[in-house]
Design brief:
This protein is α/β, with parallel strands linked by helices. Helix content is 42%, strand content 25%. It has helices spanning 29-41, 58-74, 91-96, 118-121, 127-147, 165-174, 186-198, 236-246, 269-285, 296-302, 322-344, 348-366; strands at residues 3-8, 13-20, 45-56, 79-84, 105-109, 155-159, 178-183, 204-208, 221-227, 247-258, 264-266, 306-316, 371-382. Strands 6, 7, 8, 9, 10, 11, 12 and 13 form an eight-stranded mixed β-sheet that branches. Strand 2, helix 1 (29-41) and strand 3 (45-56) form a beta-alpha-beta unit. The protein is globular, with a radius of gyration of 24 Å. Bound molecules: S-adenosylmethionine. S-adenosylmethionine (SAM) is lined by residues 121-122, 130, 133-134, 160-162, 166, 183-185, 188, 210-212, 227-229, 232-233.
């Protein structure tokens, strides 16, 4: 693995990426030039961005320490802020040492709270929502995926894999040659690894990472999936850019997203409609766009893909056991009303009405003459050759 060190004058930022593992400092003479050029050009603050720095040996670290010492001597007022990431395990421990060099040196972990929905999605109480959802969607998606180009023997990445259940199903049904599953939520990944171990599946690589900033080389995968996740991140274009980058030319990216205000049910349609309109507003408060589904085509075009295929499907209470549908809605109620609305600071009256719509949706799902639906948009696109 090679490395790059570049200076971005706009952000007064030195960006370190890859694996910096020299045998001696001599190999880093070009790096030194870049660092000195950066030092001469900045005032106020200098950022040392290590988000994509996967490896750093002692000689490499020594070079950074020497540079910071030099910077503190030459520009005593300069603030130096090292930006680390939590999913590169060694960084926190090693970079913490930099704080001892000067009170002007700060070390910040960028992904502690890097998107507004993170606190809710990285709450282990979200796990039951994901567990119940995939149970309902898989029976549709296993038929849909081949229409979007998934074949056995492919190199596949599932980005924002959540609790990893989709990856496990995909592994059993489509026998990929390689299957990498990435999410940022540590609790979900721990759950995923446990389930894989329980089921005796050891071929899935579950890795922690930021979908908007992946530590993966370009052009690696034939098929890249990202389900229900572009819609919860506040900068969907950044995730799509990364999905594009890691996909091989000629390979495909597959995304699914919702339009929650179109969830429906009969009887008690009005109350159900009201609640799901509010679900969309609730996510908007956390800067997620849970109405993203129909926008997928536009976003995929804008990200540079071609050959876009798009279809919608309705998960309903008639697909299988209506109780499965009711279980999903009960999980939504527990999380959206019991967790997210509380976190937003909603009143008891609002939460009671909000809960009622979920209860009415469950009523519709279990009613002998009732109908309940949850629409999803599946879209895929090819990375041009
Ligand atoms: C609604 S869940 C969907 C999970 C899974 N794909 C599924 O369909 O069950 C959204 C997931 O996206 C993850 N996520 C959101 N933004 C992310 C980011 N920038 N990097 C990595 N994971 C992210 C969350 O941790 C969460 O597990």
């Amino acid at each position: 693995m090679s490395f790059t060190v570049r200076f971005d004058p706009n952000n007064q930022e030195i960006v370190l990426a890859g694996a910096i593992r020299p045998h001696s400092g001599v190999e880093l003479s070009e790096v030194r030039q870049t660092l000195d050029h950066a030092l001469n050009s900045v005032s106020g603050a200098l950022y040392l961005n290590a988000k994509r720095l996967a490896q750093l040996n002692n000689a490499g670290f020594h070079e950074i320490v020497t540079f910071i010492r030099r910077a503190c001597r030459q520009k005593p007022d300069l603030k130096i802020i090292a930006i680390t990431s939590s999913y590169v395990g060694w960084q926190e421990r090693k970079f913490a040492l930099l704080r001892q060099l000067s009170s002007n040196v700060a070390v910040e972990q960028y992904d502690k709270a890097f998107y507004p929905g993170q606190s809710v999605l990285e709450d282990s109480r979200f796990i039951p929502v994901l567990r119940t959802q995939t149970k309902l969607t898989w029976r549709h998606e296993r038929k849909i995926l081949p229409r979007h180009g998934l074949r056995p023997g492919m190199a596949v990445a599932d980005i924002c894999c959540g609790i990893g259940d989709f990856a496990a199903l995909l592994y059993k049904e489509f026998q990929p040659a390689r299957l990498l599953a990435i999410d940022h939520a540590p609790q979900s990944l721990a759950y995923a690894r446990q389930v894989a171990a329980d089921f005796g599946i050891d071929a899935i690589e579950y890795v922690q990472g930021d979908a908007a900033n992946l530590l993966i080389g370009d052009n690696q995968f034939d098929f890249v999936t990202c389900r229900h996740s572009v819609q919860v991140f506040d900068r969907p274009g950044l995730i799509l850019r990364e999905l594009y980058r890691i996909c091989k030319p000629g390979g495909r990216v597959y995304i699914t997203n919702e339009k929650n205000s179109h969830c429906l049910g009969e009887p008690r349609a009005e109350s159900i409609q009201w609640t799901y309109n509010e679900v969309a507003r609730l996510w908007a408060y956390f800067k997620g766009d849970i109405e993203f589904g129909p926008k997928s085509r536009r976003y995929l075009y804008d990200a540079g893909f071609d050959d876009i295929r798009m279809e919608s499907f309705m998960v309903t209470n008639l697909d299988g056991d209506p109780q499965d549908f009711a279980d999903v809605v009960a999980a939504w109620e527990g999380f959206f009303a019991g967790q997210m609305a509380v976190q937003r600071g909603d009143s008891a009256e609002f939460i009671a009405r909000f809960r009622q719509g979920f209860q009415d949706h469950i009523f519709a799902a279990l009613h002998p003459k009732g109908y309940a639906g949850w629409p999803i948009w599946a879209a895929s696109a090819r990375k041009p050759r």
